[in-house]
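Researcher: Good morning. I'm working through a list of sequences from a screen, and I'd like to move beyond sequence-only analysis. For each chain I'm collecting a predicted structure so we can compare shapes side by side. This is the next one on the list. No need for commentary yet; just the structure.
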Amino acid sequence: MDAAALDQRTRTHRDGVPPGLVERLLDLGHADLVRAQALAEDGDWYCARAWARRLADQGRTDDALAVVARYTATGWFTAVAEAARLLDAAGRGEEAIGLLRPFAADGERSALRELAPLLARHGRAEEAYALLVPHIADWYLAEALADVALVLGRGDEVAELLAARTAPDRPCGRCGGPECAGRGPEPFNAVNLIASIRDRQGRTQEALAVLYAYGATPVNNRDPLAELLVEHGRIDELRAYAADGEHPQAVRRLAEHLEEQGDVAGAVEVYRPHAEQDSGHAPTLLAELLARHGRGGEAIEVMRAHDTCDDYALHLLCGLFAAEDRAEEGLAHLDALKSRRGGEEYEQFRLRGPLLAACGRLDEAVAQTRAHPEGASWYAVEDLAHLLAESGRPEEAAALLEPDRTRHRQDLAPLLVTLGRPQEAVALLRAPLPEVPVPAAWGYSDSPPF
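Model: Good morning. Structure tokens for this chain:
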């Protein structure tokens, strides 16, 4: 086993069983198969992780650690972190700390993030603080630093350090110069963290003032200011913040809150003016909201008015047509779009298959896909296999993928499990793929081809 190879396999799911399929095998009662792959000489990491967690849940921590030991021995941090979590969950925090410390000492970012909260939970928060504070410019570690600082009652110190990194006259963290176009706070989430610290100190008004003054930075499509206003029940203030149309995440959070409170009509009215202006994702969010509450017909009209060729929006509209037993209308919509554009790309064509199947014309969908100029491509074959499987014909779907089973193995393996052939599915996924040569590096050129 080699750490670099393990990392590459797990990130790309190359030569291994994906975690979702591992869980499915366990749910279907194939624990012996998962165990065998976990303990095999060339073991599968996701099988090993799942098996170790199952043993730990049974109170067999040492057996769980033995399963992951070969992986941790390579120095691969993902396995080391898993072993540390198993130890900590079993009440063996000091051993977990000892396992992580050498990696943190080498400056391993993930190790610092794992080790610091562990130290804080075990009464060593000062040590965690000392580890993290030199890395305050790193957004990932700054989040952990804020948590540790609050445990120690040193939130004000960290808030001041972060505030200094938002000052307009500070030197650039990259070039050191006093003037740097486009310079933002470092870490990028500094303002959000200051507000979070103030809020958790019970100083909510100060937290809101910081976010209003500097501007919240949305993270993962979430606006911290909108989230804070909802948390503290300041819905009128959220309405005012969302009203200018400049904060789409705030519009979304307000509508979500109203829906959570059972005020669907209010949520619809929040989205509607933005949907009518085609603002952001408001049309699709409004359509999804309506569909969730049995108003699919209205959702279709919203998407028709949106009138876009965006792949996600078209996919949503065609799904709505099928769900409302109006698949023929969906096909007509695609026909009109094709006529208007003078042609149809495969991304639009592929939406026809589910609509035809919803009309009871699955065989026609199969024939059309095979006759398409791109019908022999790997992606068209996989689309067709998905359609057959979703229509209750997994045997045909598997047969379609069999001729090039290595290329299609991520799609074929779940079908084999469905068909009662789990051993074959795992063997297919574990078979080594041929090595792909690394492309030769190109030198710099200022002339075509670049």
